[in-house]
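During the practical work, I selected for study one protein's amino acid sequence and its backbone structure tokens, as given directly below:
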Amino acid sequence: MEPETALQPPSRATIADVAQRARVSIATVSRVINRTGPVAEETAAHVQAAIADLNYVPHAAARGLASRRTNTLGLLVSGISSPFLVPLLRGIEIGAREAGFSLLVHSTQNGVSHTRRTHRPLGEHNSDGLLVYVSTLDEAELRYFYELRFPMVLLYQTPPDSLQIPHVNFENKTGARRLVEHLIEVHGYRRIAFLKGPENEEDSHWRERGYLEALAAHAIPFDPALIGVGGFDEAVAQRSVEKWLKEGLPMDAIFAGDDDAAVGVIQALQQAGKNVPQDVAVVGFDDVHLAHYLMPPLTTVRTPVEQSGREAVRQLVQLIHTGHAEQHIMLPTELVIRRSCGCN
């Protein structure tokens, strides 16, 4: 008995087969398929007949290369574990789909870009434009794509001064100032601690500016002992607050920098036997889905994250199609009052 052999699928006709059948060059077949140049009517008819005879189906990727379009948007993000990214990805995906684009996502490790000249997972070879999340491309790489005239939109960061790259951001300073002023004006807190986010993220810088402006507007002296590191990270924030508590630092309230850090702050306080907000009030920033379900529910600042994703896509698609987009989109924030600040 002879061994069984797997059935092999019939070989697929190639563009070279079509050219041979129609007795024309491959370039002529390409012009007919992609409509990229004039072809005599009789010659085009021969090519179309050969395509029908051979049941030739143009390869999608090859057609994309011929037209220099992939109908794909690239997204660079730093990790995918943060609750903040869920509505952002939803907004980007919806926006891309409505515009007729697919979405290709690359996640960098620990927020540090591994996209270098020797290895670019996203770029002109597989996408029509890039959405660049904060800190996922360094200045050299931004300059590379900019000089290539490759469409880009930045999320939550401004471009270097010499690069005119569209960017989408939130009113971080205004939101932070309103939040801290609520703690001062409504609750009378004066010893308000602040946990910084990552050093290289503009969101952290502007939230700190809002915090400092609120203190200054109410004649509250700045105390550097009340500034710590939260890193927009639950574990980092928890360690910082544990250190403060061990040192006996007096404080009325803690502005955690963002909601992820606020989770760590509440854990540190409760594990130390402190009641929130009776002993120390806690506030965050972003209003992630979890904020409403914390115990106590978190007072925070709502950022329109999903809207920012859709707006970034809208600007990028406009840039791809027209070469122009609005330089800077600044989306408003909203104060959300819950029980963690001392309100009922």
User: Anything to note?
Assistant: The chain has three domains: 15-67, 72-169+305-331, 172-303+335-341. Confidence is low (pLDDT under 50) at residues 1-10, 114-118. The longest strand covers residues 72-78. The chain has eleven helices and twelve strands.
